[in-house]
């Protein structure tokens, strides 16, 4: 759609403004939306990119009094109270209400495309130092993380603190009850099953929180010689398979609220309880978050007794798919590796490893929220692509 203006006129007794573009296409803008989004200094604060107009001062039935082309790049509107507004053609074009234009801007803002994978995953690798000091590499990292769900950063120092640096690179880390970062190693009287040498089945971290962390970082500082392999699986890919081949199980897992619990002491004392559906769906029925951690699934279960066995059967179908050879990918972290992954999508686990008199395996972990990661991704994109 061209951003050159050809013609502008009111429609529907002034409740809409019709814009005709130079290429012959057209857009219809509701008058109430135009008035609500007046860009003049009285209605909009440019330094904050925020609306100053109070909603109580907006007439939801407003119509345009007059509309005209200011030039081929701008339209002007006069309202019944003689307030005047101007709208740049490029600004209007970007906010066109057509289905195609709306889909385009949503894709640009939220990058919803997913590349699904199974055991055939080609794990992307980017040097840690490049991500830290090169905007193009950092942009590639975050774009791939959003699309694929997992990226391996290589060559970090084999000491604690690298994740703090990575947190500063994206903005800031997510503080939880286990601290700003946490040490995954065999511990006496472990307050988390991860702090043992045992096998960890596929799980997402922290479904016990109302808003689980969106991104997880695991930095390998020390690796055991035997065992300790990491395994990952694309939860969105598997949930799609479940929906196709076991629709009843999918319906149960996407509609049943499961109780989660985590009680103990770490960064501070905590007693956390939450309800989550194992497969969270958006308004279109697409999976947007997996909330599955068998270790912290509560013995309290707030459903009728007759629905319990069908739930377990549905979860067994899902768990079997997660663990099938075609879906899971296994690898072993080396000291200096940092695996970064989408905690809402990618389930992870590990093989057991031998216990000993001293620590033989040490990972440092941290979380970040998708809001922070996506913010940095957009800022990097603007710099790398010279958008601003």
Which helices and strands appear, and what pairs or packs with what?
Elements: E1 5-11, E2 16-21, E3 26-30, H1 31-36, E4 44-45, E5 50-51, E6 66-71, E7 74-78, E8 84-88, H2 89-94, H3 99-110, E9 125-127, H4 128-133, H5 135-148, E10 150-154, H6 162-170, E11 182-184, E12 200-203, E13 215-222, E14 230-234, H7 235-245, H8 247-253, E15 257-265, E16 269-277, E17 279-281, E18 287-290, H9 308-322, E19 328-331, E20 338-342, E21 346-350, E22 362-368, H10 370-384
Parallel strand pairs: 9-10
Antiparallel strand pairs: 1-2, 2-3, 4-5, 6-7, 7-8, 10-20, 11-22, 12-21, 13-20, 13-22, 14-19, 14-21, 15-16, 17-18
Helix pairs in contact: 5-10, 7-8, 7-9, 8-9
**How many structurally independent domains?**
2
Count of helix runs: 10
CATH superfamily of the largest domain: Clavaminate synthase-like
Shape: elongated
- Given as residue ranges, the uncertain stretches (5+ residues, pLDDT < 50) are none
Largest beta sheet: what is the strand line-up? 9-10-20-13-22-11
Q: Can you count the beta strands? A: 22
Largest sheet: 6 strands, mixed
Work out the radius of gyration. Answer: 26 Å
CATH C-level of the largest domain: Alpha Beta
Beta-strand fraction estimate: 25-35%
- Briefly note the structural class of the backbone: alpha+beta
CATH topology of the largest domain: Double-stranded beta-helix
- Average the pLDDT over all residues and give the rounded result: 97
| Distance between the amino and carboxyl termini | 21 Å
Family: Belongs to the gamma-BBH/TMLD family.
Domain Gamma-butyrobetaine hydroxylase-like N-terminal: 14-92
Enzyme class: oxidoreductase
Pathway: Amine and polyamine biosynthesis; carnitine biosynthesis
